[in-house]
Amino acid sequence: MIPVVRIWNDRYLYKKMYVLQGFDALRRKNKIQLIFESYEEFERRGAPPVVEGNYQSHKNIIVFDVCFGGRWLHGVYDANDIYYKIPNSLLRWCDLYFKSNYQQTYLETGELLKTNYWDKLPFFDNLVPEPLDISNSRKFRKANFTMNLFHTDFIRNRLYLHIMNGLWHNSSVDRKKWDCFFIGRYWGETKASTLAILDTINKKGSTFVGGVVEENELVPDSHRRYIHRPYSLSKWCRTAASARISIVTRGLQGCVGFKPLHLLMVGAPFIANQLMSNLWQPLVDGINYIAVKDDFSDLPEKLEMCTTEKLVEMGKANREHWNRYVSPESNAKYILSELAMI
Predict the structure, then answer these.
(1) At what angle do helices 233-241 and 258-266 cross, to 10 degrees?
(2) CATH class of 166-326
(3) For residues 13 and 20, is the Cβ–Cβ distance under 8 A?
(4) What is the dihedral of CA 213, 215, 220, 223, to 10 degrees?
(5) Rounded distance between C-alpha atoms, residue 266 and residue 170, angstroms
(6) Could you give the CA distance from residue 326 to residue 297 in angstroms, rounded to a whole number?
(7) Which of 25, 80, 139, 304 is exposed most, by the fewest CB atoms within 10 A?
């Protein structure tokens, strides 16, 4: 018998569609039976109630049951960016807890990894309403960051994923329209690294596409030409596919954000800070990407490493990594395989 997956049909789909799309892909291949349910059905099976208010206990959390040959197991996928928002009651209920932006130190000690930036935010105290019960740490599993997809539309997402898969490989490296593609931010701790990236590209005389998303402050006049309007997902991927190399910065607290996942989908090589990977199958420096120092001070020499042969090699590795480990379907297979081993 094929596994049965019952999943909470939540109206708040931000960051959840990636997981849902994976289960739907398995359903279409008759690998699973997929059933969408209201949370009331899960409460009848012992799941704790949703907590509303400043702290929403189930926001960005996917709750599901899986049946293997008559044996039901409970799963939770926490798609929150950084901090663990799962209440201990839900953690006790589930058999496995899949966490995006996995912080091993937090699992071992219960202490949050803090930075000067995050500590000052007014909503910090509402991020974690209770200390994590680390006695449940055996239930934790690494999970891929949830890439941005179109909400509520499986058909549109299937077409998008099909078109973008390996798009970088549709033209040869030496016939790319641009040398570099970079979109950065200019706020907080990102200012120095963003300017270092743009200065390097400018001094090398490389053809450049992208720019800086401004928030609160203006970039210096010398860098005004890098300002742009935000790209749509499709345009972002197509632009990355038309450049020899993409440059990205880490996500919050050093995580792998959604941009590297989209670059893997496109099969594009890229340069980034050393990634503190939350992927269940980590990316490797020199194979999937080229790592630079946090301040990007060694970017010039790293760009010199980007020969045609090296870029083709990384591009192939990234396309394979996407199909084997990161695509929604492969992510769903990983979830099911972990539950099946309990």
Answers:
(1) 50
(2) alpha beta
(3) yes
(4) 0
(5) 10
(6) 30
(7) 304
| Token representation of residue 12 | 């708040």
Instruction: Look at the block and give the residue holding tokens 């939540």.
Output: 10
Per DSSP, what are the bridge partners of residue 33?
A: 4
**34 bridge partner residues:** 5
DSSP letter (8 states) at residue 285: B
Tokens standing for residue 152 = 């509520």
Ranges of each domain in the chain: 4-149+329-340, 166-326
Beta bridge partners, 41, equal none
Please compute the mean of the pLDDT values over residues 266-286 and round it to a whole number.
Answer: 88
Contact status, residue 278 vs residue 145, Cβ threshold 8 Å: yes
Edge-to-edge strands, sheet with 33-37: 33-37, 4-8, 61-68, 71-78, 96-100, 140-143
Residue 49 in tokens: 């109630």
CA nearest neighbour of 180 among 269, 267, 250, 246: 246
pLDDT tens per residue, range 13-72: 777 899 999 999 999 999 999 999 999 999 999 999 988 766 678 888 999 999 999 999
